[in-house]
């Protein structure tokens, strides 16, 4: 897919790369970057993806919030995490569209609630996909496991596979961290379920 196509709908302040650049994949780990990839320079609590740009030898384009010091092609965006999520959705053809999407959020009870809803939908005749803490499932078949809410690229790849297999309803556990990190940006929930809110993760969020 061309870079210019992936940038549609993303808030961009500068493009120092050829819009016809053919994108093979989207990466957030500099060690995995290959020819034709976009590398998203994310800033964490202890690290910054920009510092690894000089180490990448592949033919790539950096997506970042500040002009790189390294000599490389780049795209400047307002929010690199949100851009990563939106471009992941575009890369996989906006796979959430055409399926009912149920997001289950809350401090406790997400897993059991998600499984209850998936069971009810299955009993009502829907082909159901499920993502969450206990793994990812298509029609009851486990197809992978990761964090409660997968990385944006992985999540959209999973939704792509679900849609290809005829799934028409997806139930997804969405963690508070995932919301904060824009992991599900570009995915519009048809139904959102809030189980409860308690004083967990104050080390991350700071206040209740």
From TrEMBL:
Superkingdom to which the source organism belongs: Bacteria
InterPro entries: Mur-like_cat_sf, Mur_ligase_cen, MurE/MurF_N
One Pfam entry name: Mur_ligase_M
Pathway(s) this gene product operates in, as recorded in its UniProt entry: Cell wall biogenesis; peptidoglycan biosynthesis
Signal peptide as annotated in the record: none
GO molecular function, one term: ATP binding
Protein name listed in UniProt: Mur ligase central domain-containing protein
Organism this protein belongs to: Candidatus Limadaptatus stercorigallinarum
């Amino acid at each position: 897919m061309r870079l210019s196509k992936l940038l549609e709908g993303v808030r961009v302040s500068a493009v120092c790369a050829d819009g016809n650049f053919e994108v093979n994949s989207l990466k957030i780990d500099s060690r995995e970057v290959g020819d034709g990839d976009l590398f998203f320079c994310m800033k964490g609590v202890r690290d910054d993806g920009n510092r690894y740009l000089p180490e990448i030898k592949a033919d790539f384009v950096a997506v970042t919030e500040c002009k790189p010091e390294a000599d490389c092609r780049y795209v400047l965006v307002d929010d690199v995490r949100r851009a990563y999520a939106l471009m992941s959705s575009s890369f996989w053809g906006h796979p959430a569209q055409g399926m009912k999407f149920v997001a289950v959020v809350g401090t406790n009870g997400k897993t059991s609630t998600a499984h209850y809803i998936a069971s009810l939908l299955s009993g009502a005749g829907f082909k159901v996909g499920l993502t969450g803490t206990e793994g990812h499932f298509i029609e009851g078949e486990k197809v992978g496991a990761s964090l409660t809410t997968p990385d944006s690229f992985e999540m959209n790849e999973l939704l792509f596979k679900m849609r290809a297999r005829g799934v028409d309803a997806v139930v997804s556990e969405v963690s508070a961290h995932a919301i904060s990190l824009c992991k599900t940006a570009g995915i519009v929930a048809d139904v959102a379920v809030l189980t409860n809110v308690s004083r967990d993760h104050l080390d991350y969020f700071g206040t209740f």
